[in-house]
Amino acid sequence: MKIIIHGGFFSESNTNQETKVAKQEALKRIAKSSFKYLEKHSALETVVYAVSQLEDDPLFNAGLGSQIQSDGVIRMSAALMDGETQKMSGVINIEKVKNPIQVAERLMPTEDRILGEAGAIQFARKNGFEEYSTETPERRGEYEAKMRSSKSSTVGCVAFDSNGKLAVATSTGGKGFEVPGRISDSATVAGNYANSFCGVSLTGVGEDIVSNATAAKIVTRVTDGMSLKQAFDKTFAELKPYDGFAGAIAIDKEGNIYHQDSHPSMVFASYDGESFDVFE
Predict the structure, then answer these.
(1) Active site residue 85
(2) Strand, coil or helix: what is 170?
(3) What is residue 147's predicted lDDT score, i.e. its pLDDT?
(4) Is 1:251 a contact under the CB 8 Å cutoff?
(5) How confident is the model at residue 187 (pLDDT cuts 50, 70, 90)?
(6) Annotated active-site residue in 46, 154, 214, 235
(7) CA torsion, points 97, 33, 280, 63, in degrees to nearest 10?
(8) Where in the sequence is the domain holding 149, given as residue range(s)?
(9) What whole-number distance in Å separates Cα of residue 76 and Cα of residue 99?
(10) pLDDT category of residue 15 using cuts at 50, 70 and 90
């Protein structure tokens, strides 16, 4: 059993040491609790559990503490993929729900598994997800002062369970101050993809990640026989011509864990029941 999570790029938020330490400790805590959960649950259940915790922590840009768009509204996206069944479900630009990843989970058994905007909100309300504001005073202050960062951020989890099954979940609060209707990579196969060979979750600039089809490329290359390192190296090399900004975490069918970023500063933590690997 293995688990790895990411909390986006550290430079997306405050760069002070106190915030850095807080993010490191939060990632370690969530990775450890999610591994414990994985011991009695499937990979699919676990990635939802882990990403829900990341959404609930205002240190990260997903769920609570999501970025505010140019019209003053928070819109979030999240996706879930089961490596065994190859089913993917997700919500795009959903508003006023606490945990977008849980709405994505509820969509998994339905026929129409990826919903956007009004359709996603209506589905959430019909399925018992109450209206909830994910705005924080810090995000409102950033919005009002037009303190826009040039880098976006996301959270994600890849899990490998005791039955050898893989699953991945990704959630984002957007890049902040974007045009309403903008689609991020998080609820697409460019940012969130898994099959029985590999699972990958991305963070970074959505447009760069979509242009490179990053998650799908990595998974396809591992499926075709490349090692995780080879698949990452080739795929990240293809970001270089346009200075693509991306970070990725992955686990393959052998339980190997890998992570890489094009502009080093992605925060992540992995845990195998005995030891951590964490961004320092």
Answers:
(1) no
(2) strand
(3) 44
(4) no
(5) very high
(6) 154
(7) 0
(8) 2-278
(9) 9
(10) low
